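Could you help me review a protein record that somebody else here produced? What it holds is a sequence and that sequence's fold in token form. I have pasted the whole thing underneath without changing anything:
=====
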Amino acid sequence: STAHWSDIYPSADQLANLKDANLKLNGIDSKHVKGYTPLSGIRLNFTDGSSSPWMQTSLKGVPAHDIEEVSLDIYNEREIREISMKVSTTGNAICALNFSDAEGEAILESEWENFDRGREWKTFTVPEGHQIIGIQANTTNESTNISRLGFVLKKIGGN
């Protein structure tokens, strides 16, 4: 709650409009510098056709042809119960993102950087009956790496 977020979706006004919405996360788009480099941009896609805005770093000094964009679909019939991120121990660059169901089976697996040294997995439980409806990121600490990422949850059938 005290973390700095440079990018937030949905805003407080948008969140009020989503109060009764029945939308599910059905995809994630990501950007990173070509090769095995940490996450530099992310956008969520939902079943109603809406998307979060791109949350991305400035990518200062990176030519457009060196930026890779990846789109991943999410099988949204299974409930996401765990979010795991592989982050660097210095700088908190996000190197991989996994979503799992209650049985620990993968729903989404995305790896942008595959180095193990100086990297650790951080895992967060999604309470039963909650779903991802938004995202928060810090895109200003580094020019090419998102240094903090959080997901906004909503209780299914609730506020």
